[in-house]
Amino acid sequence: MRDENPPSETITFLGTGGARFMMITQLLATGGLWLNCNGTEILIDPGPGSIVQVTKRKLRPDKLSAIILSHRHLDHSADANIMIEAMTRGGFNHHGWLFAPADALETEPVIFSYLRDSLEGIEVLKEGKSYSVGRVSFTTPVRHIHGVETYGMVFNTGKHTFSYIADTRYFDGLCTSYGGDLLIICVLRLEPSPPLDHLSVPDAERIITELKPRVAILTHFGMSLWRAKPWQVVEGLSERTGVRVLAARDGMKFDLSQLDDME
Predict the structure, then answer these.
(1) Per-residue pLDDT tens digits for 62-110
(2) pTM of this structure
(3) Residue 221 exposed, middle or buried by CB count within 10 Å (0-12, 13-18, 19+)
(4) Cα(49)–Cα(46) distance, rounded to whole angstroms?
(5) How many Å apart are CA 226 and CA 220, to the nearest integer?
(6) Are 225 and 187 in contact (CB under 8 A)?
(7) Which of 63, 16, 72, 19 is closest to 43 using CA atoms?
(8) Backbone dihedral region of 155: left (phi > 0), alpha (psi from -120 to 50 degrees) or beta?
(9) Nearest alpha-carbon partner for 174 in 196, 201, 203, 149
(10) Which residues contact 69 (CB under 8 A, 6 or more apart)?
(11) Which is it for strands 121-125 and 97-101: parallel, antiparallel or unpaired?
């Protein structure tokens, strides 16, 4: 008998905008990433409008197993509370996990205290640690250089390994911390802009060239990169790196099975 719901591993981009001006204008949405890995559903970095994007895409927050915050900045965490409400069905279903750095939970916590008892548990992200959610495991290999405590993640689904490189300045050791067949990179700037602790297109090119994933997806665009038309920028990156580089779009769904068909 044919399986009408075959296992799938997908990543849905609930927003591709980053930083304050994109966040307050909503030229691009800022809803985060939704992972669905064979039934384990995880929301990463629910920025402003995440609940709107989730509803628009007909996703089910009550099916989430966890919410992960890479860091406390608003464009990555502003909708964390409402998404916990949705994940726990208004707090009536004791369900789901929250993963976040310590400074998102302690000083000026981004999660309201009354919501914490609705969760199954809270895990504090630390450098070099490993975690698991359902069928998915992930590590936070290195603390990033950013204005607050920040971590990217390397996910393992049992079938695929992929990395999410969150906001950071480029630093020695960044590339050696990540890997996998797919890289998702938060690239805010068209060109480096010291002292801002964000990656630029030349930084992304350096990372992709060194790690040589099968696919790299750029997201979290600021105004300068958006004006440069990221879908055109990635064409040049693909040519120079020899890697298939994509510019994420709001609502784009990437099926990890595409990686299996690539040499």
Answers:
(1) 999 999 999 999 999 999 999 999 999 999 999 999 999 999 999 899 9
(2) 0.96
(3) buried
(4) 8
(5) 10
(6) yes
(7) 63
(8) beta
(9) 203
(10) 44, 45, 46, 76, 77, 80, 98, 99, 100, 101, 104, 110
(11) parallel
User: CA-CA distance, 216 to 185, in Å (whole number)?
Assistant: 7
- In order of 22, 188, 236, the CA distances from 228 in angstroms are 14, 12, 12
Long-range contacts of 108-112 (CB under 8 A, 24+ apart): 108/72, 110/69, 110/72, 110/77, 110/80, 110/81, 111/80, 111/81, 111/84, 112/81
pLDDT digits (tens, 9 = 90+) for 8-48: 899 999 999 999 999 999 999 999 999 999 899 999 999 99
Of the candidates 117, 54, 63, 108, the one whose C-alpha atom is nearest the C-alpha of residue 89 is 63
Cα dist from 259 to 36, 114, 181, 207, 246, whole Å = 16, 42, 7, 19, 13
Q: Which two tokens stand for residue 203?
A: 């930084």
Cis omega before residue 141 (within 30°)?
no
Q: Are strands 182-186 and 161-165 parallel, antiparallel or unpaired?
A: parallel
The token pair that represents 28 in the structure block: 């691009």
Count of beta carbons in the 10 Å neighbourhood of residue 132: 13
